[in-house]
Amino acid sequence: MLPELAASPESSHTVKMLGIIEQWDAASGNHTDNTDKYLLLMLFKLGLDAVALHLCCRKRFTSFLSMCSLSIVLADLVMVLLLAGVWFLGPERYLVSLCFILAKASKTYEALPLPMTCLGFLDYCLEDSNLCKQSMPCKYIRNAVLTLLVWMLAVFYSFVSATSDLMELDYVTGVRALVCDVEESALITYFILGLFAVVICTMLPYWSMIPQWLKEADRLSEAREEQENQSSDLLFTSTNCTETKSGIENNLEETVQPYPPLWFSLTLGFSIFWMPYLTVSVGCLILGYGVPAYITVNLLWLECANSFLMGVVFWVNSKSQGPYSQLPENVCLWHVYWHLSRGTRQQQLPVAVFNPSKAKRNTLLYV
User: Fold this and answer.
1) Half-sphere exposure of residue 8: CA atoms within 13 angstroms, side-chain side
2) At a CB cut-off of 8 Å and minimum separation 6, what does 83 contact?
3) Burial class (CB in 10 A: 0-12, 13-18, 19+), 208
4) Helix or strand or coil: residue 355?
5) Burial environment of residue 193 by CB neighbours within 10 A (0 to 12, 13 to 18, 19 or more)
6) Confidence class for position 165, pLDDT limits 50, 70, 90
């Protein structure tokens, strides 16, 4: 059974999230053990996170948040193994109880969002600086060490603050239950509600123009994919970055105005991918479904926060650098929506081709 909300015995003004471990019905004499339900719930979350990791993390571990995504999948796997051990062996023969696992896990996951988002945002802000110009193995090691440090602090915090004592509740209906105190992530709740409200309020003034802009963004995305496919068989050689940038910009042809401002265009690109997730999450919050932190802290939330942070950094950097940043790939097509805000049409992007007759001069032909 999924965790339910019940009043805490400590204070009538405090509402706690309590996970039901076992329950008995005095009238029928039925006894229910919910260990298998928690195991199925974590198996479902593990599968969902594994799919999200495969779809969203294209270039894995090149950023701090991508390493955090892998760590959450591994933590889910560890929790599945622990719950499976309790289910197969029973709480009497297992090293730890089900309540211990749920209480410590919820407290650990609850402590993760703030340090992960802060360090991830700092990682993106410093991406183009000299501090982050490291070789790829050094980036892997740095991200792995920071991720491990965050998890160690979260686990230490859970052992210091979380309580894993079973409590007994007697309902007036004659049902008696053993419950465990678990935590929800307030930060994720505020993040989802705030982001959903911001996106909705941002869309309202431009509502009538959104279909037209989406159609143009789809056309730009298709043109970009076609040119990438055409240039995939050509041999590239290195050239000056500013030379490539100017070549791309010179091949852009303006379209009919009006076109969206940059901040709205990037918001539109973000909302196209993440609005379904935000809508479902807000719906669950409105309906009052209590979800513990070890469920809400998942890869869908982390990748949504990753896209939001990357969009903010891309928006700030694009004012001076254009769309040519060193940020890793993301599910949101920031470059396409940058060109949409410029009112440009990518008729033919330059393709760098190596000229063998002038190899020493490193000449490039644009086709």
Assistant:
1) 10
2) 35, 38, 39, 42, 98, 101
3) exposed
4) coil
5) middle
6) confident
Nearest C-alpha neighbor of 82 from the set 99, 66, 67: 99
Tokens (6 digits) for 343: 């009112």
Ranges assigned E (strand) in the chain:
4-7, 15-25, 31-33, 167-170, 175-182, 252-254, 344-346, 352-354, 364-366
Residue range 316-367, pLDDT digits in tens: 888 777 777 777 778 888 888 888 888 765 443 433 333 434 343 333 333 3
* Structure-block tokens of residue 279: 């809508």
- Is residue 125 within a helix (H) or strand (E), and if so which, with residue range? helix 113-125
pLDDT in tens, 117-143: 999 999 888 876 655 566 777 888 889
| Banded pLDDT at 245 (limits 50, 70, 90) | very low
Q: Are 353 and 365 in contact (CB under 8 A)?
A: yes
Q: Is 8 exposed, middle or buried (0-12, 13-18, 19+ CB in 10 A)?
A: middle
Question: Vertex 98, ends 15 and 292: CA angle to 5°?
Answer: 35
